[in-house]
Automatic annotation (TrEMBL):
This is Vacuolar ATPase assembly integral membrane protein VMA21. The lineage of its organism: Eukaryota, Fungi, Dikarya, Basidiomycota, Agaricomycotina. The chain crosses the membrane at residues 20-40, 52-74. The keyword Chloroplast does not apply. InterPro entries: Vma21 (IPR019013). GO terms for biological process: vacuolar proton-transporting V-type ATPase complex assembly. It comes from Agrocybe pediades.
Length: 93
């Protein structure tokens, strides 16, 4: 298989599975969730204690990262299981 064909197949698989959309959603949430949790917890939870609000923002950022990692691993396992079930034919090569 030529390099261009391999890249085209990889791009088609990526576009079909929605990986890019998931990456965009998690990237936006990685920016919005910690900042939002900082200001919300600063005003409503910790009564203007910025140290605890910053810790809350760090925890929120880590929760988003862990959620992205878990969803990526689950999607990878699902794709691997799907590929094992489909026998390779001449058309799929």
């Amino acid at each position: 298989m030529s390099d261009q064909a391999a890249i085209a197949k990889l791009n088609a698989d990526t576009a079909a599975s929605g990986v890019l959309a998931k990456l965009i959603v998690f990237s936006i949430s990685l920016g919005v969730v910690p900042i939002g949790s900082y200001f919300l917890s600063l005003k409503y939870v910790w009564n203007e204690n910025s140290t605890f609000a910053a810790i809350t923002a760090v925890v929120a950022a880590n929760v988003v990262l862990v959620a992205y990692i878990i969803s990526s691993v689950l999607e990878d396992r699902q794709n691997a299981a799907t590929q094992k079930q489909q026998p390779e034919s001449k058309k799929n090569r």
